[in-house]
Write a structure and sequence with these properties.
The complex is a heterodimer of chains A (about 300) and B (about 290). Chain A is mainly beta and about 300 residues long. Chain A has four helices and 18 strands. Classes of the chains: A mainly beta (about 300), B mainly beta (about 290).
Chain lengths: ~300, ~290
Amino acid sequence: MATGNYGTVRPADVSVDDVEILYAYSPSRETLNTVELEFLDPTQVLLPANDPNSTTEVLGGMYTLKLPTAQFGNKGYYSIIIRPKQIRTTIVDCGVLVDMPDVKGLVFDISQVPSTDQNKFENGSLVGYRVEYLETDGSKIPNLYRIITSNNRALPISQPAGNNNATQAWSFNDNTTTTFCTLTPSSAPFVKPNAVPFIGNPLQDVIITNTYFDPVMLEVEMVEYDDETLAYALYSNQTKSLEDGVYTIYNFGNEIYKQYNIFEVKDQFTGKPLYEVREQKSIIDPTKDFDDITNF
Amino acid sequence: MDYLKIKRNLENYTVRNIPKRLITVNASGDTVVNTSSPNYYYGQIPEYKIDKEGFFILDSAGEKIPNTIDINIFITQEYDDMGIFTDMDFIPKQPPLSQPPNNFNPFLDGRIAGGPVDFYYTPPISVTGETDDSHLNYVKSLRVDSNGLPIYQPFLNVSKEDGQFDGVTDNNNQRVKYKLGADINNIGTTGVEFTTYHQEFVKSTNIVGEDVTWNKTTFKAVDGGWNSSNIDLYANVKEEEFLGIVFPPEISDDVFINRGVADIFERNAILSEIKTTDDLDNFRGGYLVSE
């Protein structure tokens, strides 16, 4: 009997249909407002990379997050959470199998699941999914989860109420919309044979989440200046119009990056220079196009 | 959960171009920019991709292309084998489906309700390859020719199994064809067909470095893939006591009691009881086997 089970970390090739993306924006780190998260549509903003050997084969691991500038075009901090998609449903029953009374599990009604997710509840398709539990007031029970280890369509068979949460026994039968899920841990602990781990109660709301990838959180800091823009000021082309004092800094593509008015402030009576001023122009003077100026 | 910090400069997405046609000279000779034009984006980050003239770039369907800030990320999955499952009978859905659903993938979609087992069959395939000539000796007749070489008698059945044919099907100067495991009533399309060439040889080196030579031999097998002989439908159930057990128990004693794993801590608990190497041998009457 081998207990040396194996595991590995692999590049995820999850479908974007199994992903949820949320984000929150904060203009600065000092903002004290409550974090308000909003959803993004993963099918619109997450793009898997294809293997160079085949345009139809997902490379695995590498995904491109395409953040719309309409929502991510402000200076500040964007916290983006990429997590496995959650399915919310209700436990129909907690029971045991007729043929294996020691095997406890949860029963879900596939017809109560959103239609887009019903295919995930087919026999064996929920293996590896995580179940988290909600209180009756809708709050989430912290630090409590179970992992689904198998699921098969099953039909209840009436029997006297038994121990634990079981109200009836279940038998595998494909002519039904209910599916019986085994979970782990659900067996009695070695040291407390009478203590059965909680796996849920009938009519309890749960959150079922796939485990196709590990969640990722990104903090995207949107800035207005970086090394490149600072280099514009140091190394890029610049002009200073002697006629009107317009000082222009160009980017490396010779497009107008910044414009300033340069002038002196003098004493109105004596004419004595008091200040040299460089003031950023709010309206760009397009006549200071670098190519036009130097094309003589 | 991974936490990534990424910095993006908005300047890279900011328009710094003013289309020439938006720049005019008014009556007093001043240069004027039409900043109210829908094509004027200087200093802004447009919602959709635009060209140098400030017009939207359209995709092949004529739709505007959203302007995006692209970030490449790497997503991983941690995977652990949870061990063996138990096959259990189930009542199939009636009436069964006559056709698989669109885009049905038996490996991804699982055991769908109403799906008969033949939904999971794959088309029969023919497998060919090369092997050595070690099977040839098995199908020879007991007679020898004038040179003392064995005679390969076509359709002489050397199998000891009822209903099975093992023997030569064709023989000439170049090669001998023979079948193993064929149905005696359908020799032509069943069994594994071997062809050994009399005048062609393969030379190789075995694992101890010795030269070995054999007559070139090819094989051909039909009816490969998933079919009624190797798969069936069951409800796969995970018994928690087998969590983390990846192979069925190996019975090495006349009496074998499989206790399974009572809970997730038992394996660690067992190790805590082992103090000496003698404990390894004596624990639970030889429960642990060291080889």
